[in-house]
TrEMBL record:
Keywords annotated in UniProt: 4Fe-4S, Iron, Iron-sulfur, Metal-binding, Oxidoreductase
Record's GO cellular component terms: plasma membrane
Domain 4Fe-4S ferredoxin-type: 32-93
PANTHER family: IRON-SULFUR-BINDING OXIDOREDUCTASE FADF-RELATED (PTHR43255:SF1), IRON-SULFUR-BINDING OXIDOREDUCTASE FADF-RELATED-RELATED (PTHR43255)
InterPro entries: 4Fe4S_Fe-S-bd, 4Fe4S_Fe_S_CS, HdrC_iron-sulfur_subunit, Helical_ferredxn
Keyword Hydrolase tagged: no
Keyword Oxidoreductase attached: yes
GO molecular function: 4 iron, 4 sulfur cluster binding; metal ion binding; oxidoreductase activity
Pfam family, one: Fer4_8
Protein name (Swiss-Prot/TrEMBL): Heterodisulfide reductase, C subunit
């Protein structure tokens, strides 16, 4: 006779989506299965108060194969990649690498919400670096404001920063912009 304590109700068996778990483990070289939910990653996370899924919940959702819940969350966009989670983890799991992998999956599957301002910020920053070799704050902010359609938000602060010389009108050029563009091309080829 089957032990009732160990049996599960029909339809509630633990069946993780091996493909999601394997995909993220392959991308990150992290053994996510080693996580036993001690929650030290979430306890040390400086931005967990704005995450809809805490770091340990993201890891658990991956273990369970809950792709839809993960890609609908904002947690991986909010992560600052400070690596506190990795430093606190008794199993040395780098959750920030997992968050980066989730960003890549969301972008690849075209699952980024239009209202996701963090993604627009990343793209604006990278566009400036790709074109100029470094960031030009005024151009980057202009591109970001255009993408997010938030033209007048932060206007007072922007004007104050401009008055104090924090925004240079013309970007500074650096040597080696061809090499930087080549790095972006290599990353794009590797991604394809």
């Amino acid at each position: 006779m089957e032990n009732e304590i160990c049996s599960t109700a029909p339809g509630t068996e633990f069946s993780p989506s091996g493909s999601l778990l394997q995909e993220i483990q392959q991308m990150t070289h992290q053994n996510i299965s080693r996580c036993y939910q001690c929650k030290k990653c979430s306890a040390g996370c400086s931005v967990n108060f704005v995450m809809d899924l805490k770091v340990n919940e993201v890891v658990r959702a991956i273990q369970l194969g809950d792709r839809e819940r993960l890609l609908a969350a904002n947690s991986y966009w909010v992560c600052t990649a400070c690596k506190t989670c990795k430093n606190r983890c008794p199993n040395d799991i780098d959750s920030s690498a997992i968050m980066d992998a989730l960003k890549a999956i969301a972008i690849k599957e075209n699952r980024v919400k239009k209202e996701n301002k963090i993604c627009h910020f990343h793209n604006s920053f990278l566009t400036a670096v790709k074109l100029l070799g470094r960031t030009h704050e005024l151009g980057m902010v202009g591109l970001y404001k255009h993408k997010t359609k938030t033209y007048t938000d932060d206007l007072e602060m922007g004007l104050e920063m401009f008055k104090r010389g924090k925004f240079k009108i013309l970007p500074e050029r650096i040597r080696g912009t061809k090499q930087i563009k080549k790095i972006f091309e290599m990353a794009k080829e590797k991604d394809a």
